[in-house]
Write a structure and sequence with these properties.
By secondary structure, this protein is α+β, with helices and mostly antiparallel strands. 27% of the residues lie in helices and 16% in strands.
């Protein structure tokens, strides 16, 4: 089963207020906690910010209590310099 959630860094462009997105995600994770095997965190490469580490920590340590694997996927690097092939 796959659940897509609200983005956390959508600012005013998203459909969910910024303050509500982490709460909604927390509620979803805890309502499905026994059934979660993997969290996939998708990040748009050009929008990576310092708070990405904070968001990862929030997922892994707080929401999942270090019991669920979290994978970070970086997208949107096609036109970045250096090219995405150098991101390893």
């Amino acid at each position: 089963m796959l659940h897509d959630t609200t983005g956390l860094n959508e600012a005013g462009m998203g459909t969910v207020p910024v303050k509500d997105a982490p709460v909604n995600l927390h509620n979803l994770v805890h309502s499905l906690y026994d059934g979660i095997n993997l969290l996939v965190y998708c990040v748009c490469g050009p929008r990576i910010k310092q708070n990405m580490v904070e968001k990862y920590t929030m997922f892994y340590k707080l929401f999942c209590q270090k019991k669920v694997l979290v994978v970070i996927i970086i997208m949107g690097l096609e036109n970045e310099n250096p090219p995405m092939e150098s991101w390893q």
